[in-house]
Design goal:
- Helix 6 packs parallel to helix 7 and helix 6 packs antiparallel against helix 8.
- The protein is mainly alpha-helical.
- It folds into two domains: 78 residues, Winged helix-like DNA-binding domain superfamily/Winged helix DNA-binding domain (Arc Repressor Mutant, subunit A), CATH 1.10.10; 87 residues, no CATH class.
- It has nine helices and two strands, in the order H-H-H-E-E-H-H-H-H-H-H.
- 62% of the residues lie in helices and 7% in strands.
Length: 206
Amino acid sequence: MALSHMLLGLLADRPSNGYYLQKRFFHNQRPPLPQVYRALHEMAKNGFIKVEKVRGKSQRSQYMCAITDAGYAELDRWIKTRSGMRPTVEAFMPRLWFASLFNKEDLISCLKAYVDKKKEELDYGEGKGKTFYERGVELYGTSPQAEFYHGLFFDYWVKRLTADIKWLEEAIDKISKYKEASPPTKAKRATAKSTSVKSKAPKKKK
């Protein structure tokens, strides 16, 4: 998902500046501020937003961004497109595919670390993330339609992570109980590889 489309969605809600736009992202998904400013610069060049210099309450000047008609059209195009909706491959999947080449304890350690990260994300979604969202609603308000879809967002977040954790923990248990032949050592793997690629010497012509 492009950062620019996330920023357009936030600006469709209300005008803002780069600093406060960055603060509206969940803490565990917050992009670096320079990245936000670069995206806003490109969006202004493309005519998706307009930028105006205004004076804030502290009398200090700041640049406020607002979405344009072209920005709404781009946001509409992005929402309707299906090209970027392919499921992503979880980071542990390639390791799982080649796990037979290595010691299973190494894979178990990798999967346990992955479970810990998933649990951290789940705790955040059910705790600080939900509180962060609710505080924003209290401060700025939101429409009933937006609140409905935001509820679905949190529902998917929690249920997906819960299902991922359950599967990973079951997989770890199965791998722990699985009796496998000892994987080849590095030396044996290297020997097997060199043997398999050994080329035949060309026959001498008589």
